[in-house]
Amino acid sequence: MELGKLTIKKAAKLLQEKQISAVELAKAYLEKLKQKEPELDAFLHVCEKQALAKAEEVDLKRQRREKLGFLAGIPYAVKDNILVQGMQATAGSKILEGYQASYDATVISRLKQADAVIFGKTNLDEFAMGASTEQSAFKTTKNPWDVSRVPGGSSGGSAVAVAANMSLFALGTDTGGSIRQPASFCGIVGLRPSYGAVSRHGIISLASSLDQVGCFAKTVEDAAIVFETIAGKDGFDSTVSPKAFYPGLSEKITKTLDLKKLKIGVPKEFFELGIDPDVKKLIESSIDWFMQAGAKVQEISLPHMKYSVPAYYIILPAEASANLARYDGIRYPLSKRGESDRGFREIYFKTKGRGFGPEPRRRIMIGTFCLSSGYYDAYYSRAQKVRRLIKSDFEKAFEKIDLILGPVSPYPAFRIGEKINDPVAMYLADIYTGLVNMASLNGLSLPCGFVEREGKKLPVGLQIIGKHFNEELVLATGHQFERGHAALA
Q1: Which structural domain range is residue 112 located in?
Q2: In a domain? residue 294
Q3: Exactly one of 9, 79, 121, 350 is catalytic; which is it?
Q4: pTM of the predicted structure, to 2 decimals
């Protein structure tokens, strides 16, 4: 079985026609996982027995002609900050080592209802704080295109699981680009839905106003299938909008979209901020493809974009400092108690000092400072004003256009260790992605070509940004580009 050519849709067809069984499919992917995992370090936990048991259950249901979901028998992986009942949930941190989830996140409940087969939990930057998956407390994940390079972050493990054919799709979270950037670096599709489209219930929070659950897949159509399954209203999450309703989405996006009616905006700021020349060339070539297809492309401006990274790295640490306060050594597994303990205060200091890695400690301290008396107005309040200006820039742009095109990252995958000691350089990886989260919009990363570095091809992603809850147009446009661009390659 050629796993590289399988998509969700193709695998589902094979299963439905009984050309293969769910157990055979699971065993094939588990074998690939065992081959690749020692080199790539994408997984923190593999649940082989559970996966095979679920696959057997799917085959039995099919034999009995019981109702099955469309994802029945499809293998998938889950970022380890998403709760799966009975499984570990470390968020890539020592402070949660040994913790097992007591309930399912809503997205997991929906995938279980769809009869998908979970393979395990994937590696991530600690508490999703990072852009390279080097900040994990447990291991460093490698890029399958060049193992000396990073896969991106923070959802690097999930991206690698799909790119290396260890699962057919994977879940991740995107707070400032943590799905789109790894998708770009690993040459796959990554969707960050609009804020309020997918429930965050059962997600280990980083920044509650920025976090969103999304997916990695081989194709845009596959991403739409997964998104359609996990999206929608949830009684456990009041931020999910009733507007988040996408029935039949995966079929709708495959219908021919008239690109001649499409108005596309290209922010001039995207090409003024130190973008790699080879990446710039590929993005411009992708934009030319849309122009040749008849779309109306025009230059637009997002004047407050230059303030997005500084504002983002005030808002995120502030929210993170509040969310991570619960990990105190009392309620979760890691507790540094001893004979010399004189009370809770000493336990807190010992636990947090040894449990959190350098990046969470850095952001907790920044966030706590920004929220402290005398500094709230100077930092956090001002950052929120910048956020409103960024949102206003997008609203004005979308009055004239339908979509925005641009790069996902200013550069292709960088070398492991290259930026780890320079937090500012690492933060700038979010320059094209973080402002989408700040404005609560949706963004899609899809492959648009390769650049060559030291004799190896490295993927580059095109980003398509859409209006709030307009995932259908974003995915339909991505599907058209995917088909047309692949035909030219």
Answers
A1: 3-252
A2: no
A3: 79
A4: 0.95
Q: Is 396 a catalytic residue?
A: no
* Residue of 21, 155, 178, 308 with catalytic role: 178
Q: How many domains does the chain have?
A: 1
Mean pLDDT over 471-489 rounds to 88
Lowest mean pLDDT among 67-76, 159-168, 326-335, 375-384: 326-335
- CATH code of the domain covering residue 186: 3.90.1300.10
CA pair distance 419, 396, nearest whole angstrom: 35
> DSSP labels for 410-436?
SSSPPBTTSSTT-HHHHHGGGTTTHHH
In angstroms, rounded to a whole number, what is the distance separating the alpha carbons of residues 410 and 428? 9
Residue with tokens 């796959």: 188
Of 1-15, 88-102, 322-336, 463-477, least confident by mean pLDDT is 322-336
The answer to whether residue 324 sits within a structural domain is: no
pLDDT number for residue 339 = 41
Q: Is residue 62 part of a domain?
A: yes
- Domain assignment of residue 212, yes or no: yes
Q: Are 466 and 473 within 8 A, CB to CB?
A: yes
**What distance in Å separates the CA atoms of residue 106 and residue 231, rounded to the nearest whole number?**
10
The pair phi, psi for residue 296, each rounded to 5°, is -90, 115
Out of 93, 136, 154, 440, which one is annotated catalytic? 154
Active site residue 79: yes
